[in-house]
């Protein structure tokens, strides 16, 4: 049975308010008790939207808020493909975040419909915590990223605040998963990424890792 959070993602009204109302508020809430998630998000957006001819994949793209931003920075044959399994989110992306170098596909993040080693950068932002059985999605992100490419994840992380009695249980009831401090980093390393860097900003974590040219080489 879908969790409340999963049901919300299928709601056309939520798809409409997501980008400009929900996402900025949620990003701000993630800063609770720590460094400003908004500042890191701004830096990440600048990094992702820098000019260049890259093939990018935005997994669980929602209404295409990051897909469009990334696509607008690309040049030449560069493309950003957003995938999501919610039809209302993709309809919203088609309405509001079309761009010459953006494409949207309905697909499940557990089974990304692209061959191994396709993308220069693969992102999965603000989504893993909503996905039941999320860790195999990380393996998929690594699989479709080319050697030398990057995987970038933003998700939840356990902190002193979320370890307070009842917090994880209440979050769990709504379908929101709070990841252990090393869970994402360890899984990405096990999947083959190297130079994995984790930045914890309040209740959220940004994790960036590189897929080595030679499997198993690098720190
Ligand atoms: C909160 S939105 C994130 C949108 C955008 N990435 C962002 O950073 O604002 C989460 C998205 O994950 C999608 N999602 C959840 N589980 C998924 C799955 N198994 N496969 C693909 N998309 C999924 C939902 O449909 C929703 O659009």
Structure description:
There is one protein chain. This protein is an alpha/beta fold and 219 residues long. A 7-stranded mixed beta sheet has the order 3-2-1-4-5-7-6, with helices on both faces. The model has no long low-confidence stretch (mean pLDDT 93). The protein starts with a helix and ends in a 9-residue tail after the last strand. The longest helix has 18 residues, at 12-29. It has a single domain (4-208), classed as 3-Layer(aba) Sandwich (Rossmann fold), CATH 3.40.50.150. The chain is globular. 37% of the residues lie in helices and 23% in strands. The chain binds S-adenosylmethionine. S-adenosylmethionine (SAM) binds next to helix 4. S-adenosylmethionine binds next to helix 4.
Give a short account of the largest sheet. 7 strands, mixed
Mass-distribution shape: globular
**How many angstroms does the end-to-end distance come to?**
40 Å
Helical coverage, percent range? 25-40%
What is the strand arrangement across the widest sheet? 3-2-1-4-5-7-6
How many structural domains can be distinguished in the coordinates? 1
CATH class: Alpha Beta
């Amino acid at each position: 049975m879908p969790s409340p959070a999963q049901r919300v993602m299928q709601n056309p009204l939520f798809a409409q308010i997501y980008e400009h109302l929900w996402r900025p508020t949620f990003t701000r809430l993630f800063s609770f008790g720590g460094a400003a998630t908004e500042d890191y998000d701004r830096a990440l957006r600048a990094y992702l939207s820098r000019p260049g001819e890259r093939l990018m994949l935005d997994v669980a793209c929602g209404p295409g808020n990051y897909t469009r931003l990334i696509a607008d920075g690309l040049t030449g044959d560069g493309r950003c493909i957003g995938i999501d399994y919610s039809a209302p989110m993709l309809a919203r992306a088609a309405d509001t975040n079309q761009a010459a170098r953006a494409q949207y596909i309905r697909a499940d993040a557990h089974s990304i419909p692209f061959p191994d080693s396709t993308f220069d950068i693969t992102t999965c932002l603000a989504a893993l915590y909503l996905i039941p059985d999320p860790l195999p999605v990380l393996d998929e992100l690594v699989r479709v990223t080319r050697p030398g490419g990057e995987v970038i994840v933003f998700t939840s992380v356990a902190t002193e605040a979320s370890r307070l009695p009842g917090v994880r249980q209440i979050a769990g009831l709504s379908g929101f998963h709070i990841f252990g401090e090393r869970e994402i980093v360890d899984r990405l390393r096990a999947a083959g990424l190297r130079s994995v860097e984790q930045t914890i900003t309040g209740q959220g974590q940004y994790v960036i890792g590189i897929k080595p040219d030679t499997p198993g080489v690098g720190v």
